[in-house]
Amino acid sequence: MSSSTEDDLPLLSTGITPEWLGAKLGHEIKSIENTRTIWGTGSKLFYTITYEDGIEDDDDRPKHICVKGVFSPEMREDQPWTVSLAQREADFFTKIAPGVQNMIFPKGWWSDTSEDQGIAIMSDLVHEGCTFPPEVASYSVETVKNSIEQLAGLHAQFWGQDEEDHPWIWNNYDPAIRFMSASWDEVVREPGRPKLPDHLMDGARCNEALDRYFTERNPRFRTLLHGDTHIGNVYFLPDGRNGFLDWSAFHFGSCFHDVVYHVTAMLSVEDRRAHELRILDHYLETLHFLGGPKFDRHHDPDVMLEYRRSFMTNVIWLICPRTLQSRERVDVLCERTVAAWDDHQVIDTILNQPKPEAAGETGEEESDAGTE
C-alpha cells in the first residue's frame, strides 16, 4: 500500500499522470480524467480511471479515486504546517488504518510520504453513494451519537497509549494550533471577522489558556484521537451511518477533545445545551463496553473538569485563517464555540486551576486509567 520512493511524490497536480498513478496502484492505466478538485488544508484531486485492459468491474482496483496531498504552492508557503498534516494522513492509511476497529473511513489504496509531501490515494466516496454535510448544518442527537460510538471505539482500542508506544506519532496538532493562535490579537480584529465578547479579544490571556490546556491535559484520559472531528470531516453512508474523513491530525491527547469538538460543530447551541450530558454518558458507556475504562461523571470530578477544559479545542473557529474554511462555516462555528465556552467557563476553568508545579503534579507525564 505504500512505497519507500520519496523522490517521486509530485508537489503539483500536474504531476498526477496515468503513468504515476499506474505505478502506485500496480496496474497499467490508459487515461485519467480529473472530474473535480477541492482546495483546502489538503488538496483533494478526484479522478476517473480507464485501465489499459478495459475491464470496468474489478473490486481489486479503484475506478474513481481521490488523491490527497498539498498541491497548492500558496498553501505550502502561507501555512507550512499543512505539509505535516498531509504526511500524517498518508501515515494513517499505511500504518494505522489496517488495524483500526469500530470506525468508518474511506478505503485507502496507496499512500506515502517524502520530506515535503504526503499523498494518500483513497476511494471517491461520491461513487459509493455517500453524502456530505453542507458548509453549515445542525444534526440530530441520534446522528451525533452514531459518531460518538465510533470515537469511543477508536479511543478504547488505543486507551492509555502514547508516543512512547508509537514514536512516529509525534504531536503535530498542538504546534499547528499554536502557530495560528500566535497572531490572535490581529486576527480577531480583522474586518469581517465574527464579533467576539471583550474577554476573548485578549490574545495573551487566551493563548495562556491554550498553552495550559495543551500542557496540563489529564493523562487519565489519554488515547489516540482523530483530532479534527468537525462537521466538514464527516460523511454519511447510504445506510445512514456516519464516517470520518481527514485523518491528518490524529495524535495522542485527551479523549474529550474528539467528543466536544464534534458535539459543538454538529449540534445547534440549543440542542447541545439540552443533550450534551446525555451524549457524554453514551460515550462513557460505549467506551467501557468496547474495552476502555469505566468512568462515572457523577462521582469522579476529573471527568467533568477534563470535559470542560477540552472545549478549548474549538479555538480554531475563533482564529481560523480565511484560506482554510469558508466564512459561512467559520461564522456559525465561532458562534457555537463562544456559546460553549461561556456555558462551561472554559478560559476561567483552565486558568483558575493550580499550575502543576504548584500542585505537585506533572500534567501529562503522570498516568492513571479509570476503573477497569
What's a concise summary of this model?
The protein is an alpha+beta fold and 372 residues long.
Description of the structure:
This protein has helices spanning 18-25, 73-78, 82-96, 141-157, 173-181, 184-187, 203-215, 255-266, 269-289, 301-309, 316-319, 327-344, 346-351, 356-359; strands spanning 29-38, 43-51, 64-69, 108-114, 117-123, 222-225, 234-236, 242-244, 251-254. It is an alpha+beta fold and 372 residues long. Strands 1-2-3-5-4 form a five-stranded antiparallel β-sheet. Residues 365-369 have low confidence and may be disordered.
Indicate the CATH topology of the largest domain.
Answer: Aminoglycoside 3'-phosphotransferase, Chain: A, domain 2
> For the terminal residues, how far apart are their CA atoms?
36 Å
Please write the CATH class name of the largest domain. Answer: Alpha Beta
- Report Rg: 21 Å
The profile of the biggest β sheet is: 5 strands, antiparallel
- The shape, in one word, is globular
Which structural class do the helices and strands define? alpha+beta
- Can you tell me the CATH architecture of the largest domain? Alpha-Beta Complex
CATH superfamily of the largest domain: Aminoglycoside phosphotransferase (APH), C-terminal lobe
Spatial strand order of the main sheet: 1-2-3-5-4
Number of helices in the DSSP assignment: 14
Give the low-pLDDT segments.
365-369
Please report which band the strand proportion falls in: under 5%, 5-15%, 15-25%, 25-35%, 35-45% or over 45%.
5-15%
DSSP, total strands: 9
Quaternary state of this entry equals: single chain
Instruction: Give the ordered list of helices and strands.
Output: HEEEHHEEHHHHEEEEHHHHHHH
**Helical proportion, percent range:** 25-40%
Mean pLDDT: 93
Number of domains: 2
